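FORM 7B - TANDEM STRUCTURE REPORT

SECTION 1: FIRST PROTEIN
SEQUENCE AND TOKENS:
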Amino acid sequence: TNQRRYAITSAIAATGVPALVMSKGHRIEEIPEVPLVVSDKVEEIKKTKEAVAVLKKLKAWSDIEKVYSSKRIRAGKGKMRNRRRIQRRGPLVIYNQDNGITRAFRNIPGVTLISVDRLNLLKIAPGGHVGRFCIWTESAFKRLDGIYGTWRKESTEKNGYNLPMHKMAS
């Protein structure tokens, strides 16, 4: 459990390093900041058209256009095993409360949605490669300190867990 928490906190930290996110292949040149934190009003979006408008306004749509252009047929035997088409991963949207956000974003290819309560290592770092482009809602970003704690303060939701100290300074 401790090792998994260490891995998840390291993967979350890597989503805030622009060089790692760009090396993963995400188009984040025009994005104002990394990690990208948006207001909680995004959680109330219910229509996909509104979600697309939000992504275009945040300049994150170029990453989804890359997903559209990457749709292709899988190499190998997977085609016969009902795994015919593959595409690359787009941004990961992390929310605190689902007030329609999952329905709005689920039909956009490449976009993955995940609650901050159920952060999954394979969603944050698919294939074991850290540096996925994450879009956080404000309340989800604030909850991270409560879930994982800080260097000085213990976690309030996980028993006796502190953030691991970094081995290197960047």
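SECTION 2: SECOND PROTEIN
SEQUENCE AND TOKENS:
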Amino acid sequence: IAPPPPPPDPPFAPPGSLAVPHGDVFEFQFTDVRTPINGVSLAEILLLDARGIELPTTQALVFDMQPEDSPTGQGPENLVDTLIRTQWTDLRTPTPETPVRVRVFLAQEFWVNSYTFWPAFTNPERDPKSWRFGVVRGAARRRGRALSEDNWGGTFHQLTTETNQEPPYGPY
């Protein structure tokens, strides 16, 4: 029995760019910050296509985040609200062994050629300085609730690691 044919390419696939990831769920694993004592914070995350155009995001969720992990008004929804004056803060300090993991959901599958993100301007010591980025394959759409080991779903495929960067970050 022959294997089934591969699925069709998602919209906006760049010509001849097979190494560029496509999908509708992407993950950042923040592994270190400038001063690793009191959490990680960002203002905005953008995923970009081959033309440098922002792809439509629908949601950002943080793995295993509890309400007390974020100050009031600084939840992960601020990462994709298109406002760099708002911010997401997670008071857990990331390490390579226990990264703070953020999943960004796109409206549909797209080719992601690059990404960029802006630091929150209130606490530069919380700026990420090391992270991993990848596409999540086979992830169940876990919308509207916290993600934990029980319902995280999918397989993470690391695509890039950036270390000791200076803000603003990207595009990568």
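SECTION 3: OBSERVATIONS ON SECOND PROTEIN
Residues 7-19, 141-159 have pLDDT under 50 and may be disordered.
The chain is about 0% helix and 40% strand.

SECTION 4: SIGNATURE
Preparer initials: ____
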